[in-house]
Each structure stands twice: as C-alpha cells, then as structure tokens.
Amino acid sequence: MEDEMKTRSKDQRKAKGAMGEEAAALFLENLGYRILERNWRCRSGEIDLIAKQEHILVFIEVRSRSSSRYGTPAESVTARKITQVRQTAAVYLHMNGMGEAPIRFDMISVRLSAETAVVTDHFINAF
C-alpha cells in the first residue's frame, strides 16, 4: 500500500510538471521562441525546454508550484541544479556540433491550480 501511494504521488508530480512545462512552452511560443526540445535527457541530467530566440539558443528550467508554502519556484533552483543544467547543456551543444552557438539560461516560474497552469515569471539570463 505504501508503494502504491508513492507511485501515485510520483505520477501526480510528473503530471503537474508536464502541465507547467506545457504552459511555459506556450508562453515562449507566444513571444516568438521556437521550441526545439522538451525534456532533453542525457547521462548528466535533463533540460526542460530548449528553444531558439532569433540566433540565441536558450536552455530553460521550468519550476512549478501549487502554493508558496515551501517558497517560490525561483527559490527552488539550487546551485547544484544550476551546475547540472549547465553540464547537460554542454553535452547537448557537443552532441549537436553547436559549441560556438550563442546561448542563454532562462528560468520560468509557473503557478499551478487544479485545472490551470499560469506563467508568473520569466527570468531571462537567470544563471
């Protein structure tokens, strides 16, 4: 029974994360960004969204929260997470032969409710 509860909780977390990432992708597309990748993974980690804004390749960390009880979405980005995103971005650039591409790291905060996900902040060049 405990394993079943853990599985259900993990599934709910994944569903909420997907809802937040979809809201972030739509938000960026409405600003003229072109989404290249969603949930790009390699051994070093995962990047939520990779997009192109004009000539800049943008790696985006999406953070979603349904309440501020444990802090804001932006406050949940740790130094460890920043390092992981940067390392994963380096792998992406290497694997795609884009080592010289101009890049940027953004962070998007999403507020979740039972049926909606709303982008509350877009931190350009966040880290």
TrEMBL record:
| Alphabetical list of SUPFAM superfamilies matching this protein | Restriction endonuclease-like
Q: Which residues form a coiled coil?
A: none
The record's Pfam families line, in alphabetical order, gives: UPF0102
Q: Which family does it belong to?
A: Belongs to the UPF0102 family.
Q: What is this protein called?
A: UPF0102 protein FKV70_11760
Organism source for this protein? Paenibacillus ottowii
